[in-house]
Design a protein that fits this description.
elongated, 2 helices, mainly beta
Length: 449
Amino acid sequence: MTKLFTVEVILLLQLYHGAGKTDWSIQVPDTVNVESGKSARLPCTFTHPIDDYRGNITVIWKTGNAFHGPVIFQCVLPYQESAETYTCNNVATTSDKDRYLFSGNPNDNDISIEIVNIRDSDRNEYFCRVQLEDPSHAYSSQNPINLQVNGVGKADWSIHVPDTVNTESGKSAKLPCTFTHPIDDYRGDITVIWRTGNAFNGPVIFQCVLPYQESAETYTCDNVATSTDKHHYRFSGNPNNNDISIEIINTKYGDINKYFCRVQLEDATHAYSSAKAISLQVHGPPRILSLSTKFYEDKEVAVICTVEAEPAPTITWKISSSCQPILQSLRHNPTQHLMIGEIQNITSSANYTCIAINEHGRDEKVFQYLLANSAGIPVLEKSEALKRELKPLNEAVIVLTLLCIALLILLFILGYKYRVKGKATNSTPREPNIFFAYRKLDGSETEVE
């Protein structure tokens, strides 16, 4: 009898477990489509093998993976007979847990949730899980819900920039950038970011937040980027026209680079960067930065002309000595936009004129080289540029010299008059003695004539 009873219990347990595996089921749709900014309901209904179950039900939702994905929603639903609506606090630890709301009813075996204020970052695969009071009585959805967010993303975001901007060195250059975004009648802040070199990892040269201003025709926006030359850039667009252009003030050759713009709405997930770069080209006429000499170990002397220009200039020399050979070497430094010309083996006194020319203009400067003695020791006279720099100092020396001469003449005249007066005094009767009294440091007085 006991053996028979044991067999019956084992049979019932086997039937129960078999029923559990067979009767658990979860039904979810393959895809849910929603418009950005609106709410999305993720339906999930289930069946379980426990008849007339009246215990708690735990609801769990995950993203990415049914078992190992992060939990975005979790709550415990107590049994409420004939309840038409349920509220259930989300106890998940995600930072934005308040965006996920329970919208099902366990009496109908419905554990659906709702996501409010849909973002582009909500695009994902979602899995639901139901668990009875006994944790071993649980079941997860095998197939995910694929959430598609319409009206946000690469398809509806767009940024328009030119391929190239050309400007002249020393002038200002506008970098145009216009955009479209999927949020209708957007009235929030817009963050503007500009980078160089790389759209995502390049250094930020300009960043500012533009508050919404209805019908504003002009905008000013302080650059809060941490770059040392942040005042080199200023905002020149209008967000009401979806324009986030900037201007580079007083461009220089060092500004030649690739530039990327980025627009970001108040929700940081609503952002878009330009995939294409603006190539800034700065050109200008040559400018001779220096004329100098270089002494080599074998006592050879060279004259070096350093020129800044874009595009690279040609360098030629004009030498006053007709017998002087022109042996020039050229070095181009494209990174610093320099061209360096060098005349080697200088052996005679002459004026060396460096002439730099490109399609935008020319520059020239003269360097005087003088052999001062028969030993062949070179003495370098001042270049024209140095002479111009020393001109104010020379003028000051001349003025001081003239003042000193005038002072000497005045002293001579005063001395002469004093001697003449002294001779006249000796020929007249002596005046009464005049005594002066002064007080010593010890307080006594002394009279002197």
